[in-house]
Amino acid sequence: MNMLLHHVLCLILHVVSSSQYGTETIETLMPNVKVVKVELRSFTETQVPLLCGDSYQDTEVIWMKDSEREGQGNQIQVKVEEMMGANYSCHNAAGDYLNHTLVLVQDIPSPNRTRRVLEKSHDADEDEYIRCLAKNYNGTFHCFWKKTTYRTSAVVALVQVGQFSGRNFSCSVHSDGAGLTCEDLDSCSFAEEVSRIDLTIYFRSNYLLEDYTVTPFYIREIVETDKIHITKVEGNTFQWGYPATWSLPCSYYPLTFQVKVVHARESCDSEKQVLLKETKETKFTVTHSSKRYRFCLRAKDELVDRPWCQWTDYEVKHQHKKH
Hints:
It comes from Oncorhynchus tshawytscha (Chinook salmon). GO terms for molecular function: cytokine activity; cytokine receptor activity. Its main location: secreted. InterPro entries: FN3_sf, Ig-like_fold, IL-12, IL-12_beta, IL-12_beta_cen-dom. The protein is mainly β. About 0% of the residues lie in helices and about 45% in strands. Strands 2, 3, 4, 5, 7, 8, 10, 11, 14, 17 and 18 form an eleven-stranded mixed beta sheet that branches. A five-stranded antiparallel beta sheet has the order 1-15-16-13-12, with no helix packed on it. It has a four-stranded antiparallel beta sheet with strand order 22-21-24-25, with no helix packed on it.
């Protein structure tokens, strides 16, 4: 099942603090995490200041990097080269752990910036890497992405959602690491949305950090119904119901259904249809004379202009009666 993302917070300030070092900017993304923002095409190295803690001013502090001694003192400078960040931990003279700082490197936005973690959606009209959809109007939405071949081990480091809209969300990353689900904790499905949802997801691959921002959206702009399940077939009569995930009552959230009949060897996407009709009913009788055909069914919100859901199909194979 879903793993709760510990660093999912709404209303997080993107930059807690920052410092300028030449052409590089060093920012504190969240507690114990510093980000060196650079142009990776030209970046070679920079110095990053580390602080073990204000309470350790009079303590003998030893810094470690990957089990090797890095320096001594409550405050030190460490060298970061190219994408070679690291996890630095500080200890007292007895070797007891005191604190740590994770240093990541991020390529700053530029026209020629290369994205390394996620693949661009193949069917996207714009520069889209993350696709979000909602199965109803209850305030919950789901987002999906695909990692590049060389960054399959990348993980979500931070999710910022509702930062500018003031809405309160709780998010969890899917167990396969290829998506997340967010729930609006203050949502009322009958209330009109007054602000779009803003969403930025930070991915970490080793010590590289990349952020992806989704174009702000209303739930109504990403609603897509689940596939329809045909519940009963008697002869040429088909019956179905609303998806279990759809908002209730149905009278307030009506669906329109599209019925399509094609030859048995054709798919539902075929343009060689025998019949194509829209209906608001949940029952339909096919008057097609063929003994074999494919019955296709899909739905969409009747009141909001959204794409149809995926087809559900049923192949009819009537037997010839023996005389």
